[in-house]
Amino acid sequence: MVTKNQHYVPACILKHFANSKGQLYEALVKEGKVYRTNRSQAMSERFIYEHPILPQNILETYFHRIENYLSPALDRMASDIDSLGDSGSLDAIKKQVRKYLREFIIFYYRSGALFYEYGFDERERQERVVSLLQNLMRSEYIRSLAKTIERHYDFAVIKSEDRGFLLSDQYLSTAGLAVKNQFSNISNRNMGLRDVIILIPISCSYYAVYSHGKTPDYIVPEKHNVLTAEQVHEVNRTILNNSYRKCVGYNEAFLRESMESFVYRSPSGVRMVYDSGAVAGATLKKEVFFYPEERQVWDFLAGMKMLKFEGMGRNDLCACGSGKKFKKCCLYYYSRASSAILDIKNKIDVRSYAVHPTATVERGINEFFVPGTSH
Predict the structure, then answer these.
(1) CA distance 22 to 29
(2) pTM of the complete model beyond 0.90
(3) Quick one: CA torsion of 174, 178, 184, 189, rounded to 10 degrees?
(4) 29: closest CA among 239, 254, 201, 244?
(5) 270: exposed, middle or buried (C-beta count within 10 Å: 0-12, 13-18, 19+)?
(6) Rounded CA gap, 327 and 337, in Å?
(7) Spatial separation of the C-alpha atoms in residues 247 and 255, rounded to whole Å
(8) Domain spans of the chain?
(9) Which residues contact 126 (CB under 8 A, 6 or more apart)?
(10) pLDDT tens digits, residue range 102-125?
């Protein structure tokens, strides 16, 4: 019999965001609607993983097998962090998280957010399932990406004492800690790049964090960091903006307050035609930045706001209309965007933005290349 209601975020993690009755709060992020529901109904869709050429329930069964051994591991992680205290060694927790990085990445690729991105170019659901399968079949790539995260990113644990952390429909949440450039096939938050933060949910009280670059002062590597309510809201802003459709939480007040920071942004499609006649393209994930000032830099770069400021002197009144001098206002954003434009003109290789020369960088979505014929 086919499982009709299929979760695109694992049930074994949803239970850690639910109360003793199995209830949690779910938000339709675009509509701004928050409601209470049962975890058996949350983050799910009817027949989302079914395909006419596949045996019934084959993907649901595959994911369920992983959940069968990951569920007790997540229980153990949450329990071990509880007993750790605020100053204990993270070595055992780090080892457990590292052991299951591959599974976390698999659940990222089966998530609702990725499923939405697979179909951004109006692909039918069946074609989205094919995109999902293509990613799941790249077992060596997934292992290599997990190794890159393990070896080249700092590790930490963060805690909300109010059970205030949210869970995105992307499962893992990622954000750029700094604008690097405007890429043709990836975003500034793709795993494997430098200046990226990766948030792995353990429960509504705990997240494991892998990061590279300028992390917030309250996330200290190799530490169990207890966050204030304000700091939890900053983290939740990133988690929420990783979502496309839904986000859940144990604490209704934290979910409702975070909803105020949600800005809907869709993925974007890129198509490139070369002199040879070759055509390449990809779907780009929406850009999410941890710091608001980096979003400003991105808007200057991608939105071409910087053109408005060309030729301005440092002591001129800023063209944004603030009444401040350019050097005291938008010069920083303009300079950062200009630097990225210069990298584009100089055709700087995307590999130079990787966290390490040998790093595996998360692939673009629905990437394709059709060779042409040179004349």
Answers:
(1) 21
(2) yes
(3) -10
(4) 244
(5) middle
(6) 15
(7) 8
(8) 5-259, 268-370
(9) 51, 52
(10) 999 999 999 998 888 887 765 677
